[in-house]
Each structure stands twice: as C-alpha cells, then as structure tokens.
Amino acid sequence: MFKYALLFFLVMFMIGTDTFLISPLLPELQAAFGVKTEHAGWMLGAYTLGSAVFALIAGPLSDGWNRRTVLSCGLIAFSASTFLCGFADSFWTMCLFRLAAGISAAFTAPQVWAAIPSVMPPTKIAKTMGVAYAGLAASQAFGVPIGSWLASAGWPMPFWTIGAASLALAAFAYWQLPDIKPEAAVGRIAIFSRYRPLIRSAKARGGFTAYLLLHLGGGTAFAFAGKWMSDVFGLTVGQIGIAMLFLGLGNMLGSTVSASASRRFGAAGTVYAGMMLLIALYALLPRLPHLSLATVCYVIVFAVLGILFPIVMGALTSLDATLRGTISSLANATMNGANTLGAWIAGLLYVQLGGYMPIGLFASVSLALSLAAFAASGLFVRRQARTENREQA
Fold first, then answer.
1. 267-284 and 357-377 helices cross at what angle (nearest 10)?
2. CA gap 17, 12 in Å, rounded
3. What's the burial of 68, exposed, middle or buried (CB within 10 Å: 0-12/13-18/19+)?
4. Which stretch, 107-116, 284-293, 321-330, has highest mean pLDDT?
5. Using CA atoms, how far apart are residues 77 and 170, in angstroms rounded to an integer?
6. Three-state secondary structure along the chain?
7. Which of residues 289 and 81 earns the better pLDDT score?
8. Are residues 258 and 306 in contact, defined by beta-carbon separation less than 8 angstroms?
9. What is the pLDDT of residue 392?
10. Under 8 Å between Cβ of 249 and 295
11. Domain of life here (predicted)?
12. How many beta carbons lie within 10 A of that of residue 96, not counting itself?
C-alpha cells in the first residue's frame, strides 16, 4: 500500500509544482516575450482556466473509463505540454501550452482522489488522502524555490525538468496501479447526466456550497497576503517568498496529521473545531502588530487547512462511489473558481476599504457561512457513524 501512497503524493507534488512554477519566472518571461504587465498574468491564468473548465467534463468522462489508463495518459499529456512550454517562442504559444497543461491536469489530479477509495482499504483511506494532499502542500512550499533554482540555467529548464519527471511518473503509475474499471451501468450514462444525482442530493448541494465558501474565504485572504506583508511590514519579494515557504510547511504538516486528528476527534468534530479556530484567526490576523506574530498565525491557519481539506475531500468522494471522478473534478473546479473570485474580491476590498482588515473579516464571515452549510448538509453524519462503528468493532 505504500507504493500507492507514494504514487499519489508524487502526482500531486508534480502537478502542484507546475501550477506554481510560473510565479518566480514571470518577470523573466515577461522580458523574454516583450509582454505588458497587465497581460503577463494570462501565463498563469491560462493554466487555471483550462483546469477549472475542463474539470467539469473530465470528471464525468473518467467515471466511465479505466482510472489507471486516464491517470497514465493524463500524465503523458501533462508531461508533453509542460515540456513544450520550454520551447515557447512567444507570449501566445506559452499561453497555449499552459492551457494544454491545465487541461491535462484536469484529467489527472481528480483521478488521485477518485482512485484512493478504490485501491486502499477503508482504514487507510483517510491517511492516504492526507498523504496526497501533503504532496500538494509540499509543492506550495517548495515549488517557487525549485522553479527559481532550475531557472538559473535558463527559464526553459524548469519546464523541461518537470516534463521529463512527469513522463517517468506516468510509467510508474501504469506499472503500479491495478485496473480500476467502472461499473457497467456507469459507462452508459450521458456525461452531464452524471451530475444529476449530486444536484438532487441535499447533502451534496450543502457540502459543495460549504466547500465553495471554505475556499472563497481562504482564497480571498491568501490573494493579498504578500501585498499586506509588503505594505505593513516592509518585506521584499524575497522575504515574502521565505514567509510563504513557512506557510507551505505548515500546510504540509497539517495534512500529515489529518488522519490522526480525524480518528481521535471524529471527522465532524475535527472539521467544526478547525473551522471555528480559522474564523477567529482570520479576524485576528490583520490586527497583529508584529511580523513574527502574523507569520505564526498564518502558519497555524495553513496547518489547520491542511488538516481539514483531506477530511472534506474524503467526505465528498464518499457521497457516491460510482461518481468519484465527477465529484473530484467538480471539487477541483469549485476550488479554482472560488480562488479566482476570491482574488478579485480581495483586490476590491484592499483598495476600496483600505487594507487587509476587511479581507480578514470577509474570510471570517465566509468560513462561518461554510461551517453553517457543513452542519446543515449532514455531510459528516454518516461518515462519523461509520468511523465510530469501526472503532467499536
């Protein structure tokens, strides 16, 4: 079972690193392609746009296919499109290749969350979810430093390195994973009809609403965290990068203890307690007068988020065992959509209402609404009962 956990960790690490790779390279790419600052962001946005939009299609499609094949082919396409980014000779070709990488990621990443319940025993699902999320958290912590270090040999080098590593990972995935074929009835269902059971389910509607609000609050707070650190504490870009490294490490630490927290306090207890703590921390964060206190507070925030997300993803994917790809892809699209909206809201709040204080309050309110939606949905009720029954047995 270790080989599966390692595989899922590496897949999420590779995709996450590619997601954050453009950030440190942006000034150099802007100069290389002669593109204006207001347009340069599309080299990042093309990836997230492709990932968010095509996730809605990739999920239902993958529920009717062999997940081993989808994951392997997705990694091959991801490898090729990322490798081609290193050969981009203009702004538009870079955007095209980044869009292709995002589309490939939309088919690949959801297979991780969907495959875990199929290949892992029930007692190991929560822990493996945490390991997979730790891969994503590790990419957040180390993606920028890795990209910067590789770029010292030229900006194409990071893309070529990740492309080659992803191709090797595709071979490893095909070799290690067993066939994960759909039930016969699933393959005959029309693509968008697979969303119908989720739309009809009050538990699913409430769970995804809560998930949207959770990411909206966190995404809004994170979008202008660097700007806030620069304006209030006078940090340089390099110093902000170091601060973000600590946040990523906190996120990774939280994801590694997520399964233990869920076993000890139950899924519902862990999520509700963690979200109440986040509500308080987001409200407190803008009021902290010293950088050290703000950094510690943010590390705690990211550690708590690292604990919560694997538990929430596990609960969402358990809604319908035949639609795990659809659910995982919908969760991915929800996350990207919430983060995009959060970045826009953060800009308005920061400029129009004067600083980070209204952003912190908005995040707290979003988390409070998310907590209420989770409680009303009953998403964790059955899951909590199953956990208690296993412990009694």
1. 160
2. 8
3. buried
4. 284-293
5. 10
6. CHHHHHHHHHHHHHHHHHHHHHHHHHHHHHHHHCCCHHHHCHHHHHHHHHHHHHHHHHHHHHCCCCHHHHHHHHHHHHHHHHHHHCCCCCHHHHHHHHHHHHHHHHHHHHHHHHHHHHHCCHHHHHHHHHHHHHHHHHHHHHHHHHHHHHHCCCCHHHHHHHHHHHHHHHHHHHHHCCCCCCCCCHHHCCCHHHHHHHHHCHHHHHHHHHHHHHHHHHHHHHHCHHHHHHHHHCCCHHHHHHHHHHHHHHHHHHHHCHHHHHHHHCHHHHHHHHHHHHHHHHHHHHHCCCHHHHHHHHHHHHHHHHHHHHHHHHHHHCCCHHHHHHHHHHHHHHHHHHHHHHHHHHHHHHHHCCCCHHHHHHHHHHHHHHHHHHHHHCCCHHHHHHHHHHHHC
7. 81
8. yes
9. 43
10. no
11. Bacteria
12. 17
Q: Give the span between the Cα atoms of 195 and 197, in whole angstroms.
A: 6
Length of the chain: 393
Give the tens place of pLDDT for each residue, 66-108. Answer: 889 999 999 999 999 999 999 999 999 999 999 999 999 988 9
Cα distance between residue 378 and residue 194, in whole Å: 22
Residue 338 carries which side chain, given as an amino acid letter? A
Using CA atoms, how far residue 161 sits from 69, 78, 153, 332, 357, in Å, is 23, 13, 11, 25, 41
Residue with tokens 């047995």: 393
Give the integer Cα–Cα distance in Å for 51 and 328: 12
Instruction: Round the CA-based radius of gyration of the chain to a whole number and report it.
Output: 20
**pTM of the complete model beyond 0.90:** no
Whether the per-residue pLDDT at 364 is higher than 70: the answer is yes
- Domains of the chain are 1-179 (1.20.1250.20), 189-393 (1.20.1250.20)
Lowest mean pLDDT among 29-43, 150-164, 211-225: 29-43
